[in-house]
Specification:
Blueprint lengths: L4 E4 L7 H12 L5 E5 L10 E3 L6 H4 L4 E5 L16 H16 L5 E4 L4 H8 L6 H9 L5 E5 L4 E4 L9 H4 L2 H17 L7 E5 L14 H15 L3 E6 L7 H4 L4 E4 L2 H12 L4 E5 L5 E4 L16 H18 L1
Parallel strand pairs: 1-2, 1-5, 2-4, 3-4, 5-12, 7-10, 8-9, 8-10
Antiparallel strand pairs: 6-7, 6-11, 11-12
Helix pairs in contact: 3-4, 7-8
């Protein structure tokens, strides 16, 4: 029997706890998972059952939300993060990674965290989940992919200002991102020879150098080197022509130079079903593609679709990797 997916609680003052409950109600044992967090943070009236070990989740799923309890200090107010909770949120992530790496969980699905709350409350030293997970896993670099049935995108640079992108975009960073993406598409997505489309940095991919030199001096030499090794790569292409229906049919993933260049297309095409997948880790990690939504936390308004898709994708990727 395949081990269940571990779902971390994320920021308890956000929508994470209610999304866990809604996902359990919707999935109805089809995707076995267990929630790691403080049971007192779940919405009032939640049907849950505490488990001692992850393998007990299978027997519990059909009757109640399986909960591997992790007690927090301090009160919870929906929409208002408590600094006393910050270290507990971090500890839950680390605990879930231990469970996945030991084989007790098949994959990790993470509920949204609030980076500022973690920094203010516990001195969290990482830009976000992705970098912290890479540190826990002992890998130098991981890659963020956003995926849905309509599109997969990978940004080479992520959470930095636009003005800093040209200086942070290096040949080694681009090559490393391409190699990690290619290997992950083969191993986890079952694509024997994945097709990768690469966007340029500048408008019209620089238009022969008239609108910027990065395509000529940096991007194309990297792509040519990898193409010579047999990787199926096209580009650099003008980003404004890469995401219509006919263009998307020609590749398996779009590699983009910066955050919004990648995320605007997928969020426009499939806002509710996008899933964040971390590539390059020794285990499967997915996450819903949204934040903590403090403004609606505790009101029962949160849409669980992305969390459900993230749990389903985590299960599918774990099965493929294990096979």
């Amino acid at each position: 029997m395949t081990a269940p997916v571990a779902l971390s609680c994320g920021e308890p003052a956000g929508i994470g706890p209610e999304l866990a409950v809604k996902a359990w109600e919707e999935l109805d044992s089809r995707v076995p998972f267990f929630w790691v967090g403080d049971p007192s943070h779940l919405p009032q009236g939640t049907l849950f059952r505490e488990i001692e070990t992850p393998d007990q989740a299978h027997a519990v799923m059909s009757e109640a939300l399986p909960v591997l309890a992790h007690r927090f200090n301090g009160p919870l107010t929906a929409g208002v993060p408590n600094p006393d909770h910050a270290q507990h949120v971090i500890d839950v992530i680390a605990r879930c990674v231990d469970l996945v790496q030991s084989g007790q969980a098949s994959a990790l699905c993470t509920a949204p965290i609030h980076k500022q709350a973690l920094q203010d409350g516990a001195g969290f030293a990482y830009p976000g989940h992705t970098e912290y997970l890479a540190s826990l896993a002992g890998v130098e670099r991981s890659v963020m992919m956003l995926a849905s049935d309509q599109l997969r995108v990978v940004p080479v640079t992520i959470h930095i200002a636009i003005k800093d992108v040209p200086s942070r975009l290096t040949a080694s960073l681009l090559e490393e991102t391409l190699r990690i993406t290619h290997a992950s598409l083969q191993r986890d997505f079952g694509l024997e020879n994945p097709r990768i489309a690469v966007a340029g940095l500048n408008p019209h991919a620089g238009e022969g150098g008239k609108m910027g030199q990065e395509e000529i001096t940096l991007i194309t030499p990297v792509l040519d080197r990898l193409r010579a090794e047999g990787l199926q790569i096209v580009g650099p292409s003008s980003a404004d022509t890469m995401f219509h229906v006919r263009a998307r049919a020609g590749y398996d993933v779009a590699l983009c130079m910066y955050h919004d260049q990648a995320l605007i297309p997928i969020k426009t095409l499939d806002f509710d079903r996008g899933v964040n997948v971390t590539l390059g880790l020794p285990f499967i990690r997915t996450s819903p593609d949204h934040g903590t939504a403090f403004d609606i936390a505790g009101k029962g308004l949160a849409n669980p679709t992305s969390t459900i898709e993230a749990l389903k994708m985590a299960t599918d990727l774990a099965k493929r990797r294990n096979a």
